[in-house]
Design goal:
- The chain is of the alpha/beta class and 376 residues long.
- It has helices at 22-34, 51-59, 74-92, 102-105, 108-114, 134-145, 155-159, 212-225, 240-249, 264-273, 294-301, 332-344, 346-358, 362-373, and strands at 9-13, 40-44, 64-67, 96-100, 119-124, 149-152, 170-173, 199-203, 230-234, 256-260, 276-279, 306-309, 324-327.
- The protein folds into 2 domains: 3-177 and 361-373, Glycogen Phosphorylase B (Rossmann fold, 3-Layer(aba) Sandwich); 182-358, Glycogen Phosphorylase B (Rossmann fold), CATH 3.40.50.2000.
- The chain has 14 helices and 13 strands.
- The strands form 2 sheets. Strands 3-2-1-4-5-6-7 form a 7-stranded parallel beta sheet, sandwiched between helices. A 6-stranded parallel beta sheet has the order 10-9-8-11-12-13, sandwiched between helices.
- β1 (9-13), α1 (22-34) and β2 (40-44) form a beta-alpha-beta unit.
Length: 376
């Protein structure tokens, strides 16, 4: 590996802490760990947090973080972001660019126009590859063609790359990482208290893709066997009303709590209280895709095994019958059987889940990124 070829890195991402989102979690940990070896700057959106909160976060970081402003007029916001990126590119003269998220990928054209000798790396999570609008599909395909290195977070995500894109590009699969420092975080006094026997948990925005609805649909037969079961949902409550309406129609409202988005230090206590991490995500090649499921590794770090969906990127995050169980998310019987098996051999699953998470610590994952993007 010739690190002299890697002088300055700009990471452009569509999410970043302290805001919510797995893509942001990935970007933050990647930037922090790469920054130990090479200087890394970050340009990002901050659409779900107040400026005061992001300012406090940024002051504690060793990396240079530049955040886009958002204006009431879409066109002003769009033009501002292009201006900020171009200004930073010309100012710093980066050797490598890492683009994470659909919005970020579209800047590959601009970067190549300014300097076609740089190396552009695209990190593909899955959802950005599912575009239903013809124009967005066109933009995506042409943006991907400008990449020098394509890194997919799972085999499933890699299969979603449009045919004809991968030519001379380096194409590699590198899974998501887990931040081992979470084990050292002190639990927040604001952390919710979880109940339930068993205590089931999903961490992720409440959306169709994350599939919380599938566990709700299975709750009637789960509570028949486990009367004290409780399902806790942590994440942006985007589809909260639809979820609660379904729970009410099935008579399981008392067995579900939607907590909304909570911070990392509060998540620590949440994971410690959970028995099983539920990730019954939904994917199809036409509308939605679950690329990996980083919350699975985070739960594993605390010895919490997972129940996840087959035929999604979650298949790369769970070792079947070792760190968790993969099921058909639409089969209530399979979901219940999976819970039964996890509880029956809980200590064995918990131990394997923890050991699996240690294989995905960010120092290990970031080294794989360095090997992928540095010219030999």
């Amino acid at each position: 590996m010739n690190e002299k070829n890697l002088n300055k890195v700009l990471l452009l991402c569509s999410e970043f802490p302290p805001g919510p989102g797995g893509i942001g979690n990935h970007a933050w940990n990647l930037a922090r760990n790469l920054n130990y070896k090479v200087p890394v700057d970050v340009i990002t959106k901050s659409d779900y947090i107040e400026k005061e909160e992001s300012d406090r976060f940024d002051k504690l970081e060793d990396i240079n973080i530049i955040r886009f402003n958002r204006y009431s007029l879409f066109i002003k916001t769009f033009l501002h972001r292009i201006f900020v990126v171009i200004k930073q590119i010309r100012k710093r003269k980066y050797t490598h660019y890492i683009l994470s998220g659909f919005f970020s990928l579209t800047f590959s054209h601009i970067i190549k126009l300014i300097d076609d000798k740089v190396t552009i790396v695209g990190v593909l999570h899955g959802s950005e590859l599912i575009q239903t609008n013809f124009i967005m599909k066109f933009v995506l395909r042409n943006s991907l063609k400008k990449l020098d290195v394509i890194i997919s977070v799972s085999n499933y995500t890699n299969q979603l790359i449009p045919i004809g894109i991968r030519n001379d590009q380096k194409n590699i699969i590198i899974p998501n990482g887990v931040n081992k420092d979470m084990l050292e975080l002190k639990s927040s006094m604001n952390s919710p208290i979880l109940c339930g026997e068993p205590c089931l948990l999903t961490v992720g925005s409440i959306t169709d893709r994350k599939g919380q609805i599938n566990l709700i649909n299975a709750l009637p037969i789960i509570k028949d066997k486990y009367p004290n079961v409780h399902y806790h949902c942590v994440g942006l409550p985007i589809d909260k009303k639809r979820l609660l309406k379904q729970a009410d129609s099935l008579g399981v409202s008392k067995h579900i709590t939607i907590h909304g988005f909570i911070r990392n230090n509060e998540l620590v206590n949440v994971f410690k209280q959970a028995d099983i991490l539920i990730m019954l995500s939904q994917s199809n090649s036409l509308s939605i895709a679950e690329g990996f499921g980083i919350a699975i590794l985070e739960a594993n770090l605390f010895g919490v095994p997972a129940l996840g969906s087959k035929k999604t990127g979650i298949e790369d995050a769970i070792i079947q019958n070792e760190t968790g169980i993969l099921v058909n998310p639409y089969s209530s019987k399979e979901v219940l059987d999976g819970i039964d098996l996890l509880l029956d051999k809980y200590a064995q699953f918990a131990k394997s889940a923890y050991e699996w998470s240690l294989q995905h610590t960010w120092p290990n994952i970031s080294n794989r990124y360095l090997e992928a993007i540095i010219d030999d």
